[in-house]
Amino acid sequence: MLKVLFSMKVAVVMLVLFGVLVGAATFIENDYGTQSAKALIYQAKWFELFLFYFIAIVVYNIIIFRSYHKKMAIFIFHLSFLVIGIGALMTRYVGFEGMMPIREGATSSTMFSDTTVLQVYGDNQGKEGSISQVLWLSSFLPNKVSQSFHAGDKSVKVKLLEYFPEVEHILVEDPNGKPYLELMVSNSKEAQTYHLGLGETKEIDGVWFAFGAPLLQDTQGWRFEQTSKGLIFEAPWDVESMKMDDQSKDTLPKDQTHLFDSRILYQSQFGSIVLKKFYKNATQKRVAKSLKPSAISPQWALFEVEVDGKSQEVELPFVQGVSSPWKKLHLNGVDIAISLGSKAIELPFAIKLDKFKLERYPGSNTPSSYASDVVLVDLEENLTMPYEIYMNHVLDYKGYRFFQASYDADERGTILSVNYDPGARMTYIGYFLLTLGMVWALFTRNGRFQTLWRETKKLQGSLILGLMVAIGSTNPACSASPLITPEVQESISGYNSSHMEQFEKLVVQDFQGRMKPVDTMAREVVSKVSGKKKLFGLSATEIFLGMMLQPEIYQELPIIKIGHPQIALDLGLQRDVKYAKFVDFFTPDEGKYKLFDPVAQANQKKPLEKSQYDKELILIDERINVLYRTFMGSLFRIFPIPNDPNNTWVAPLDVMKQLPAEDAKIAELTTANYFNQVGQAIISSEWSKADEALDFLKKFQHLHGSAVIPPKSILAWEIRYNKWDIFSSLVPFYLLLGILILVVAFIDLFRTKRVKSNTIFSILLGAGLT
């Protein structure tokens, strides 16, 4: 039985099944949210069985084949998977993660778990009882939750009745209901719908509304009444009314009653309202607004609490990553407190936030980076350690890792992601053993790899040729590119190849301080913005120079890659549009950035809450800002600051502020002359003066920045490396080769005669290593 269960055929089938299920989790997460993926797959018991099975099969094969006696390389290779599996189990059962919000000047030692925890406490005259259970709630599952405990001699039961990832309230006609107003209210923000029932008062954005009830003392607002003549209202301010049918307007004096009718816009100094619908008899009903949780709206659950036969329903709204308030009730002699949300976890040290720093892109004003200046305080160790946390700069202490995750809307507080993973070290050891075993196996003379390699001396040349022919159609350069008219093509062309060879060698300093040829920066910009290596038949260097020389033309060209159809719709484009123009991102009248609000919301979301749409929003915002800075020339940092101790270089726009007056004037005139000469050369095809202007730029660089200018040979080799584009060229080759090897391996696995497939496998392997 064990021989069959742990056979290679069963293991391969299980591995394929495991891969399919994990792949399905990605689609579930996209459609139903992270909680659903965890509930159905990652946190499911069968997922644990898979992990234990894979560990067991490794142990079984080590024992059966006694690789620790015969083949040490294979033993280490198998041992690495065992170590990695143990690390994964430690992470699963001991590790945890969550969020730590801290305001500027505040100190916190409390994090909030990323899991949703149901906590219930009962007190029966000093006799207490409690439960605490992690819930994986999902709109994809029935969510059967039922728990019980004893508080003294009383039995307390808690049962989940309903769960909505995002809830909204709708009005439903009901003869047993009461009158309701459905209002569209706009108070300096976007208009939203609100329901106001008879006898209710409600505050909306600082303005009070009352229907059939007096306003609270010392408050002002709209007051509505139902009369035999219809609905009327009174307001403490003058109201401008406009009928939507004929656009006629009227002024309604304050402190007087007026008819309140639908299809009329009532506008005051505190906003406007519209009566969408009046319900004579209705009740409010909760419905799911979406299938997955929203980062800005609370989730909602309805529980039934029962104590020895007496029950009461309790509504529990909650937000992921935030500790929810306790709901308290007294039921059948038992004081009960119930909470649903993230659980507060105390850390053995504290973090103080000195300052939160947010930098914005010029032009769009969207966030470019943010960081937290914190102080770690550990009283037990008598330690006080300042530290800066930002993207890819993590604070590690006592097994806890702190990442910069998000920030408060007012930019006065930070949100750190906290990870405690005792299995990480074990996993890294496993990776080391895996690498050691693979390398050892490669060079063991009597190993299978060396045997296969010796079988490839013949036949591999013809196979390589066949593979190269087969992958010709998969070259990324052949994929679709944006199109332009012949007239536009002519206006952006005409660059002299000899001049461009010299221009691409011009040294530029990036924002990290690395010195690189223009060729490298141009390729980075074009690839970032469009996802292409070249556009419109022009090289990346020609495109880069053209963006600075003719920004008004390039702003009208479809060169910005759109990675999500919803973004195209946000811009007012067709859903299937793949490339947008720079001008598409701004309103034609005011020049307002169309994606400002959605990008700001995406940046404030925690990493696990960001959907594919959010991630693509952030990426396209980066593309827009890179393009804007290219148009402005701020990336073109070609002028060294004389005698600067940090060897800082600046762009033409900054020379007047950063360079001494005389040098700044020279740099300014040199830049203007160069771009002017290139513009003239494109028209006349005479490039000698442009060449001279470029030489003068290089002389200025060598005069003031020779200390950091790379040698010509280094620049030449970097440009050659860029043009060879080795790795991109090998991707389709190895992709096809890998697929063929995988197919042959599966065929070989289920064959009894393996000589022929072994030969084919050897040839394929040799082709990949040649």
Describe the structure.
The protein is of the alpha+beta class and 770 residues long. Among the domains are: 2-95 and 424-442, no CATH class; 96-110 and 346-420, Tick-borne Encephalitis virus Glycoprotein, domain 1; 116-165 and 292-342; 167-290, Tumour Suppressor Smad4; 449-474 and 726-769, no CATH class. It is built from 23 helices and 33 strands. The chain has an eight-stranded antiparallel beta sheet. Strands 8-7-17-16-13-14 form a six-stranded antiparallel beta sheet, with no helix packed on it. A hairpin with a 5-residue loop joins strand 26 and strand 27 (413-420). Helix 16 crosses helix 17. It is globular, with a radius of gyration of 34 Å. The model is unreliable at 457-479 (pLDDT under 50).
What is the alpha-carbon Rg in Å?
34 Å
Strand order of the largest sheet: 24-23-22-2-1-27-26-25
Q: Residue-averaged pLDDT, rounded?
A: 85
How many DSSP E strands? 33
Helix content: 25-40%
The CATH class assignment of the domain at 167-290 is Mainly Beta
CATH topology of the domain at 167-290: Tumour Suppressor Smad4
- Categorize the overall geometry: globular
Unreliably modeled segments: 457-479
Main sheet, how many strands, which sense, barrel?
Answer: 8 strands, antiparallel
Which class best fits the helix and strand makeup?
A: alpha+beta
Looking at the overall shape, the CATH architecture of the domain at 167-290 is Sandwich
Cα separation of the termini: 43 Å
Oligomeric nature of the chains: single chain
If helices are DSSP runs of H or I spanning 4 or more residues, what is the number of helices? 23
Roughly what fraction of the amino acids lie in strands? Answer: 25-35%
